[in-house]
Amino acid sequence: MLRELLENGSIIEIVATFVALGLIIATILSLVYIIVGGISFILSAGNEDKIKRSVQTIRFAIIGLFVSFIAFFVVRFITVLLDIPFELTFSMVIDLVRDIFDALQ
Q1: Is 85 within a domain?
Q2: Which pLDDT value is given to residue 46?
Q3: Which of 3, 16, 30, 85 is most buried per CB count within 10 Å?
Q4: Is residue 81 part of a domain?
Q5: pLDDT band, very low/low/confident/very high, at 62 (cuts 50, 70, 90)
Q6: H/E element holding 5?
Q7: Structural domain of residue 37, as residue ranges?
Q8: Total domain count for the chain?
Q9: Residue 69: which residues within 8 A CB-CB, separation 6 or more?
Q10: How does DSSP classify residue 79?
């Protein structure tokens, strides 16, 4: 899909795909940091400093996840408002994730 897009796609389609890739990467990184924060919370052994750092890690990961989704919706809203033919839907993001996983196998 990416090769075809880069060879035959318009600038708007390429930008939409890279915005979708950014959303995918932000989501994966947020989930990784939530897991890391949870593991460090479990392994803190009652140390108040470690507990505060792990809770902050989890909090910032969740905030980052919300910010990335809000940015997605803001971009979508602005493109609709300015009547730009910017095709960026969640089905496109899911198809892109499916293509990435198929390429990894």
Answers
A1: yes
A2: 86
A3: 16
A4: yes
A5: very high
A6: helix 2-8
A7: 10-104
A8: 1
A9: 23
A10: H
CA atoms of 104 and 28, how far apart (whole Å): 16
66 and 86 Cβ atoms separated by less than 8 Å: no
Report the alpha-carbon distance of residue 39 to residue 51 in Å, rounded: 11
pLDDT digits (tens, 9 = 90+) for 64-83: 999 988 988 888 888 888 88
User: Reduced to 3 states, what is the DSSP secondary structure of residue 84?
Assistant: coil
- Cβ atoms within 10 Å of 30's Cβ, excluding its own: 21
Q: How far is CA 37 from the centre of its chain?
A: 18
Q: Do 20 and 94 form a contact (C-beta atoms < 8 A)?
A: no
* pTM: predicted TM-score of the whole model, two decimal places: 0.76
Which distant-in-sequence residues (6+ apart) come within 8 Å of 57 by Cβ?
A: 33, 36, 37, 40
For residue 43 the two structure tokens come to 């392994």
Is the Cα dihedral 53, 66, 26, 15 positive or negative? negative
- The answer to whether residue 37 sits within a structural domain is yes
Structure tokens at 98: 């499916």
